């Protein structure tokens, strides 16, 4: 991996890194080194949430190939994906991504066990699924075998029978009417002490999170592929009143893939 731009300290940005100067070959072969590059800002320890998104896209902006993100990914992308999960308290994800990608519970990884325990984190992050319909396979391992009980976030007026069924196998949070109030949803996750927040999309959920002004950071993997076709972008559907400026804080390259890390520009 080549580290083209390394993180540096900023009041609203990530913690200071001891990585080598930008543009040099960096030994990012260890998970610990990658974890340092992607460290959450110190503010998460004082109860302030930080919402990071991790997404992959093609050069022409497609967020999926043949209906899935798998075709856009790479070995390094999966490695970073795993590190971002291992650093987080909670992974927020839209129900369609859970259904399409067959989401399983996050796993505990020995390499991160000590750091997670020291930070007071559960052995693996909680998966929190956002759904209006509650059309979820409740017999799937996501609900029957999680290390940490899965969370489902639904509107208060979601079908009562479905809410009751979900509450049997998951922690149900209800916020908003007609659709989940994402500001209240984030507050509910933060109130549980889960300030290191990660979202893995999909595009429809991510668009709303950005439009609500909740997104602090975007880790976008750029795959050296052209896809054309009808695939959505990584944010789809929601309208933002004003474009949000982001600043590049980290850039890694491997085999033509670019792994970017952009943070919200301080106001
Ligand atoms: N490139 C990438 O990095 C990446 C990442 C993730 C996913 N993907 C791909 O993206 C596709 C899925 O993404 P998507 O954009 O179609 O769907 P999505 O954002 O994963 O999920 C949309 C669903 O989430 C629920 N939802 C979202 N916002 C809600 C709100 N405010 N209130 C209540 N429920 C809400 C609804 O669930 P219900 O339908 O249950 O009501 C909605 O249908 C898949 O093809 C997946 O492979 C790509």
TrEMBL record:
Instruction: Tell me a GO biological process for this protein.
Output: riboflavin biosynthetic process
This protein's UniProt keywords: NADP, Oxidoreductase
Reading the lineage from the top rank, the first entry is Bacteria
Positions of the Bacterial bifunctional deaminase-reductase C-terminal domain: 49-250
Gene Ontology MF terms in the entry: 5-amino-6-(5-phosphoribosylamino)uracil reductase activity
Coiled-coil spans are none
Identify one Pfam family in the record: RibD_C
Please give the residue ranges the record annotates as the region Disordered.
1-25
**Under what name is this protein listed?**
Riboflavin biosynthesis pyrimidine reductase
* Species assigned in the record: Kitasatospora kifunensis (Streptomyces kifunensis)
